[in-house]
Write a structure and sequence with these properties.
This protein is α/β, with parallel strands linked by helices. It has 3 helices and 3 strands. A 3-stranded parallel beta sheet has the order 2-1-3, with no helix packed on it. The longest helix has 10 residues, at about 30-40. It is globular, with a radius of gyration of 13 Å.
Length: about 80
C-alpha cells in the first residue's frame, strides 16, 4: 500500500499500478482535476502542512511506501529559480 505527497498528476500511480494507493496529498487545482478524473476513489488529503494532516492520513490506513516530489518551481528552469 502506498501514498503520495505533492502528488501532481499521479506520475507514481501511473508508473506503479500494482501498488494499492491509499491516498494522495495535492493542493494545486489542475493536478487535482486530472487525478479526480482518472482516480475518483483515491482521497486527496490536501495540504501536508495542515495541523490535522497525520490524523486524516491514518484514517485511510498506514502506507508501506510514501512517494513524493517536492515542489520544484523555485529550482526549475521553468520557474524563477529563486530557491
Amino acid at each position: 500500500m502506498g501514498a503520495t505527497l505533492f502528488s501532481g498528476i499521479d506520475a507514481p500511480e501511473v508508473s506503479a499500478p500494482a501498488i494499492d494507493w491509499l491516498w494522495r496529498a495535492e493542493i494545486d487545482k489542475f493536478p487535482n482535476a486530472v487525478s479526480k478524473h482518472h482516480r475518483p476513489d483515491t482521497p486527496n488529503l490536501g495540504d501536508v502542512s495542515a495541523p490535522d494532516f497525520v490524523e486524516k492520513a491514518l484514517q485511510h490506513g498506514r502506507p508501506d511506501i510514501v512517494v513524493f516530489g517536492s515542489p520544484c518551481q523555485s529550482f526549475s528552469v521553468a520557474g524563477k529559480r529563486l530557491g
